[in-house]
Amino acid sequence: MSVKVRLGTRNDIDALVDVECSDVETWYHFSSKGRGDPAVYDELSPWERTMHGGPWMDAAALAQYWDDMKRLGITPLVAEFNGKVVGHLDIIFSDELPLGRFLYLDVLTVHKAYRRRGVARALIKEAEGLARRRKVGFMLVEPQEYEGPSGLLYRSCGFEKAFDTYHLEASINRPEVPSELRLASIPKLLRPPLKTHTMVCGWYNISAKMWYYSVNSNLEPSHTLLHHRLALAVLTDISTHFFHLEQELFNRSTGTLCLWTPAPPNQKALRDVFQTVKAVASWLGIETLKTRTIERYVATLKKAGFIIKSRGEPYLTKNIG
Ligand SMILES: CC(C)(COP(=O)(O)OP(=O)(O)OC[C@H]1O[C@@H](n2cnc3c(N)ncnc32)[C@H](O)[C@@H]1OP(=O)(O)O)[C@@H](O)C(=O)NCCC(=O)NCCS
């Protein structure tokens, strides 16, 4: 019995969908109102399938995501067990503030029927080899559950807790855009400002992927769902900030925020920038703004009126070299 890790190709798409779907016990219909009745896989539209865990749940959606992977900076690794693809790990090299140069371990899944046979460990070992060859300082991951299988897996591979994450919320009471600030659109092809700006909130992924996924998304506008998502720049007389706002799919009075500000964050400028973001959110009908951040930016967000709702899973790192 042996595990072989190699680069994934488009020919692996069906097998990868099989891997990811192995974790879903019950499939459901979805509509703009939310989750509906239980269903069988074949009855569901591609979009309904992706609601169970993203583009990996449907071959057509994953093929579309594959088109985008290069732009998102993703290298897909797949693991074969006795010649059958049974697991995968997406990795992203990034160099961004405030972290520096690192290898991020993004999506990792092993087929339910092939777990505890060393498949994930082999994928992580291959990623570590690539990180060493590229001479990055460390690997970074956010396990699904620190105390669950993923956290135990990464800790057994030498990863240690690096920093905590927090979910925060702010309520919005129809503020106005401060008169000295200006809103502007963001040029579609603007590269992520990873070395000049820091992502003070929006830590649903690393800064590079969040930028390409939200601000510089090349997703076709979806007609399936009626929810707003937009990215804008906020200009003060000396600085430019960028944000992305997205209404929640099934609760349109709530939106999520991702914000990039010049590093190091300037509290005074940010006060007005957050007010501007809240004004735009209120134009979209958003009453509650949600976001996620890492411990170093919690105080900044609290000053902008956010309160901590819960603690998220921590990020883990492993130093290389
Ligand atoms: C987490 C996951 C990727 C592990 O894959 P795997 O191939 O079974 O892991 P491995 O066999 O390589 O395990 C290596 C070590 O990790 C730890 N480990 C892995 N799964 C574990 C579990 N369910 N409970 C306790 N420890 C676990 C053990 O130390 C294990 O070594 P051992 O089997 O010699 O005791 C797999 O369970 C999975 O796909 N889960 C669902 C998706 C997920 O959580 N992905 C991770 C997102 S960050």
Q: Could you walk me through the main structural features you see in this protein, from its secondary elements to its overall organization?
A:
The chain has 321 residues and is an alpha+beta fold. The chain has two domains: 3-141, Gcn5-related N-acetyltransferase (GNAT) (Aminopeptidase, 3-Layer(aba) Sandwich), CATH 3.40.630.30; 166-314, 3-Layer(aba) Sandwich (Aminopeptidase). It is 26% helix and 36% strand. The strands form three sheets. Strands 9, 10, 11, 12, 13, 14, 15 and 16 form an eight-stranded mixed beta sheet that branches. A seven-stranded mixed beta sheet has the order 1-4-5-6-7-17-8, with helices on both faces. A two-stranded antiparallel ribbon has the order 2-3. The structure holds coenzyme A. Coenzyme A binds at residues 23, 108-110, 115-121, 143-144, 149-150, 152-153, 156.
Poorly predicted runs of 5 or more residues: none
Based on the coordinates given, report the CATH architecture of the largest domain: 3-Layer(aba) Sandwich
The number of distinct helices, counting runs of at least 4 residues, comes to: 8
Overall average residue pLDDT: 95
Q: Tell me about the biggest sheet?
A: 8 strands, mixed
Bound molecules: coenzyme A
Considering DSSP H and I runs of 4 or more, what fraction of the residues is helical?
Answer: 25-40%
Q: What is the CATH class of the largest domain? A: Alpha Beta
Q: Which class do the helix and strand fractions yield?
A: alpha+beta
Can you tell me the overall shape?
globular
* N-to-C order of helices and strands: EHEEHHEEEHEHEEEEHEEEHEHEE
- Terminal-residue CA separation: 31 Å
How large is the share of residues in beta strands?
Answer: 35-45%
- Domain tally: 2
How large is the radius of gyration?
20 Å
The name of the CATH topology of the largest domain is Aminopeptidase
Q: Could you give the count of β-strands?
A: 17
